[in-house]
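Late entry, zinc ion complex.
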Amino acid sequence: MKILSPSILAADFKCLGGQIQEVDRAGAQYIHVDVMDGMFVPSISFGMPVLSSIRSATEKVLDVHLMIQNPERYIEQFAKCGADLITVHVEACQHLDRVIEQIHSQGIKAGVALNPATSLSVLEYVIEKIDMVLLMTVNPGFGGQKYIDSCTLKIKKMREWIDQKKYGIDLEVDGGINKETIKTVLDAGANVIVAGSSIFGGDAQKNTKELLEIMEKYEA
Ligand code: DX5
Ligand code: ZN
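Prediction complete; structure with ligand written out below:
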């Protein structure tokens, strides 16, 4: 199943509830929430109170992407604030296996994210325990960056691995996805698509519908 996950990092925060409702009504299945700590990534975004507010604005799946160092410190709190799926970075965890268990113990799904330069091999001993792999297609930390072309081969390899072993997990991509690059990542085998500036940079409802239309063509 193909899923669109608009990243609210690019939304207009003075009317965040309204922006979320626009993409919700246009048919996006997830809402992507980028949490940044100023340590793992250079920038700081927002945290628990904002997530709680978002929870009251939509019933869609809250896809929380933690770009924070040692995320085990906050898993329980983000789960309590309404996350349905928490993704942590392999580069930010000292004990990744334990963090995955911690997320599942909250009764929610667990994703593992890899930066563009991180090899897929780090997933070897956890892949059977997770619900989603997130392949970053930009270096994390900011919206509005350009898709890194070398990630396409990585997505293809990940898709082959998932299908060969019949893992049945989702493959999400994040960074620089627009009406052109979405075709590249769908062709390569991604099935959960994050898009920030290409949705909220203009008419969010219209942009969501247009991306969903492209995705539908790949559904067959
Ligand atoms: C980047 C974030 C992304 C970001 C994507 O560090 O993880 O989710 O919001 O933004 P665009 O789609 O503008 O690249
Ligand atoms: Zn993200």
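The chain has a mean pLDDT of 98. Will revisit in the morning.
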